[in-house]
Design goal:
- The protein has 336 residues and is of the alpha/beta class.
- Helix content is 46%, strand content 16%.
- The protein is built from twelve helices and 15 strands.
- A seven-stranded parallel beta sheet has the order 3-2-1-4-5-7-12, with helices on both faces. Strands 6-15 form a two-stranded parallel sheet.
Amino acid sequence: MTSKRTVLVTGGGGFLGSAIVRLLISRGETVRSLSRGRYPELERMGVEHICADLADLQAVRRACQGVEAVFHVAAKFGTWGRYEAYYQANTQATLNLLSVCREVGVSRLIYTSSPSVVFDGRDMRGVDESAPYPARFEGPYAQTKALGEQAVLQAAREGLPAIALRPHLIWGPGGVHLIDRIISRAKRLRIVGDGTNQVDTIYVDNAAWAHILAEDGLNRNPALSGRTYFVSQDQPMAFAQMLNDILAAGGLPPITRKVSPTLARLAALFCEGIYKTLGIESEPPITRFQVDAIATDHWFDISAIKRDLGYKPVVSTEEGLKRLALWLRDYSGSRS
């Protein structure tokens, strides 16, 4: 694609957002970013950066003015915290953006959702997009992301061309949220259960590429509007193996100690109780959502995104781990 147009990425300075920005720039797009923080690296790439909250409708209007497509990546992540904070960041912010997109005539919107929107605490084996939302959500992140996704799909039914993507456990160089948690807790980590439960993750460049394919596909075929797609490496593997591969990339020994899911949930319940009683807003050492997520199968049937959008991973898990190891070596050195 050689046409010069303006594309907006919310959360463009974040882990996935910046990967999407880099891809868009490599394709010759004019990129605008809207996020609360300031990111000098975006300016160095020639990105027009609007530093604002999605709660600021005037700023959202300014960000969307003259934009052809929007990638809505910004979100509040986590497994703990006040529901209202998650609702404002994940649901209300999405409602605000959708309202402005319709108001100014944005042509396409790609929404970054999550497989957690259909997670009910049980195994997810080969789940496809027909899986329903659960009767009870496992935490405020999952619930508010589901509400955001539902709002996007409703907007699609009302005429705004939109697709929702559900990437699972995004990792890779720069992924300090997930990678740092694993590396920093290496000595305390335990395998919950026997570690053979299967998970399918996604390397950050593959997740970014899926977003590009979604916008391209929606441009070519507006009938795809209103679809949701799981996206992953398409390579389920034992959770313990993936965890230890990441640790190995960081030059750390594998985790061999195990704990039963029942004991882990009891420990999580105890920690949650202490934090609630004391009014501590930071995340406990372990939560029940985390236990359920790491002790169950999580892999998906991604045949729909392969069929409709031509997706396939552009970076293998093996190559991704090599790149992660190189980055971790430099990252650790810069912090020492």
